[in-house]
Amino acid sequence: MARRPLPRILSSGSASITRSREIARTAADNATDILQPLITITRGLRLLAAAGRQRWAATPKDRRGPALFTVAVCLFALAVMPFGGLIALVTVMGAAAWKGRERTEERTGPDEAETARLRSLYEALVPYFGVPDDPAPLYAHGGDWTKAFGDHAFDGDGRPTRLRVTYPACFTDGEAASRARIEQLLHAKSGRSREYRFTWDEEGNQLLMTVLGALPTSIGAQRFVTAPGETVLGFTDGEAVQRTVPVHDGDLTRDAPPVVWRTGARSTEPHLLVVGQPGSGTTTLLRSLALQALQHGDVLVVEATATGEYACLTGRDGVLAVECEPGGALTALEWAAHETERRLIAASRARQAGRPLPDDIRRPLWILLDRPGLLCRLATATGGRPDPLELLQAPLRHGRATGVTVVLADQFDSLDALGEGIRRQARARVVLGRCSREEVAAVLGAEPDTTPAPESPPGRGYARLGTGPVLRLQVPATPDPYDETADEAHRQAVLGLLPGRRDAVAAAGAEKPAAPEPTGVPEPLLPRAVTVDNLAVTD
Predict the structure, then answer these.
(1) Which among 38, 53, 102, 317 has most CB atoms closer than 10 A?
(2) Per residue, what are the HEC states of 407-474?
(3) How does 123-148 read in b/e, with b if 16+ C-beta sit within 10 Å?
């Protein structure tokens, strides 16, 4: 017997069934939107009826009669009033619509998971804050955590982002070791994948823990809005400084809080020391400082590693030299020492004669020295060469009065080779890379009030200017423009900031008539043009 074919509705597959379900779902959604007012009023009438039943059940039996009489009088008054029935209907519908509206419940406290985490933090702090002889201890096993914790906030995962901890007055909050134990405990219990700031209020016996957001790494090298003598080391938290500058962050322009370092005759921190781990971004910071210094001054770069990180500056207008060889580096430092002395003598003569400072000593001079510790070892190994650190004594001591700024960048393993004298002169300090709180304190002179960052991109660290606070720092992205592995946008930004080639500038100046020499001004001891030509420039 021949088999009969299946009906069309079954043989067409699941496409028609799926289409029918979509049509039905769309129709239901449209009907819900159209009937939403009716649904709201119906829900409100149901809630009003339930509230009326509860109120009637809660009314004593001896008061039910007067209540019914009052309701009857009101209904009779509405019935005899003009448009009384319409007014009653509108009133009931309005009350039902208000009662039946969809409302989002506001949280008045932590949920169950957040309460469990706070209770766990409280129990963990009992061994540190508990006082056995206290008749009413603030911290005790099984105690009330609500009296100790306040001002708490949580993220989407239930981890605290803000917490105010009240501790007993007998706790030794003046000792760094005691504070460090509490901070380490809160850091471990609240999540190690974030960066925290701990603010101790020793007068009020309170500790505020807040979670910090990551500093932006997308800000590249650019012309920052600063006054002459001001240099942007990087960017920090908005509440840490009282100033912002407009920056280009990708395709957007926004205000960012900078860490501004002031140099010159009025500066109390005229020299800078940068310390970091390999690959932490110390060279990036020096490259960023060089680009900013070339706007108003001259730059002398001494690179002991000879890796060519500053090759983009070679031969540029305003760059006196980029020395990579030990012999050339020592020659450049010798010239820097003599130039500092020359500037000091010229400034002293001008002041004694009652004249303004000569133009050749007004232009700032920046000496950027990368890895001076390695240069000292190389000079010691060759023998018969002067100590580079001794050559830096004159620029470091008299640099503020002569417009000479010294920037040194080295690693932690070579920090002892610099000596205490150089570290004492360089009062502006920067630490880059992932390092412990003890290492940061050894360089900056104070521990940071934040925990180490879980991830340390290049240029991430801390800065301290003189005796100021320790600030988080993110150096602007300033890669080597000849490095093809770097971000293309940041490379082009660096190329756009580089001054023109010295040969092109000299050729353009040769076409112009020579300016007449000024009269009545004494000739300096060592003309600036001669000193620049005497420097060995490596190409």
Answers:
(1) 317
(2) EEEEEHHHCHHHHHHHHHHCCEEEEECCCCHHHHHHHHCCCCCECCCCCCCCCEEEEEECCCCCEEEE
(3) bebbeebeeeeeeeebbbeebebeeb
